[in-house]
Write a structure and sequence with these properties.
single chain; alpha/beta; Inosine-uridine Nucleoside N-ribohydrolase, Chain A; eight-stranded mixed beta sheet; two-stranded antiparallel ribbon; 12 helices; 12 strands; 37% helix; 18% strand; globular
Amino acid sequence: MPRNIIIDTDPGQDDAVAILLALASPELRVLGLTAVAGNVPLPLTQLNALKVCELAGRPDIPVFAGCAEPLARRLVTAEHVHGKTGLDGPDLPAPKMRLQDRHAVDFIIETLRREPSGTVTICPLGPLTNIATALQKAPDIAPRIHEIVLMGGAYFEVGNITPAAEFNIYVDPEAADIVFKSGIPLVVMPLDVTHKALVTRPRVEAFRALGTRTGIAVAEMTDFFERFDIGKYGSEGAPLHDPCVIAYLLQPHLFTGRHINVEIETSSELTLGMSVADWWRVTDRAANALFIGDLHAEGFFGLLTERLARL
């Protein structure tokens, strides 16, 4: 039986690669994509989600537009990383697919109420606005969610948008706080692990060597995306943050982490959006997340390249 997932996303080159990985994997049944404002504003993230489905040859996947603004703050975006479209690099055609009429939040609520309890996994790849809004609007869905596997936060790597905060959490810390306090089983892919998923030059060329439209587009995305991170971190390539979420669903043995308490800072000017992870278990706060710290990078890129070859 394939695993039912909803991908909540703000594409983003790394989001796009995560979506392609999911759509290339028969173990996963993508019930829908829900777009949220994050890397770029909502009109672009919803457009990019449609483009990625068409790139994968999957115009059957329903795409829903969600929240355009964080719960309580002005939107912060990341064009400086992803380019003005959010998906700079490849030249992807305007999509023929259309957005669904329903709001993403309503789709999430209706899907969780319709599907058998405990059979749907939520995969947030951006700010958690849509997920928190759904939980606020329909508290009854929380116990029905099998788990939430998300990309967000950081502990040892600290921050990438402020000295203390990772971008997805920082954009909507109030939403993150709601999700982390929800009692839903959480698996968190922080910068601590995603910065180990580096697209080195040989790995980019392996994508390009697939020779398919998808393989070449992914190589072009990572070519564009990496210029920022190589300049910032002096690393060998860009981290592929979001595909870690999908890879974990497919091959969890590639990842290691700890079941710990993670709290989100929502009031400090200095550390707003910080994910305070009790990695050393120095408090008596109850564990609420499996916080991933490491991955087997060769296995991760082997999986990614093998799956992208199927599209």
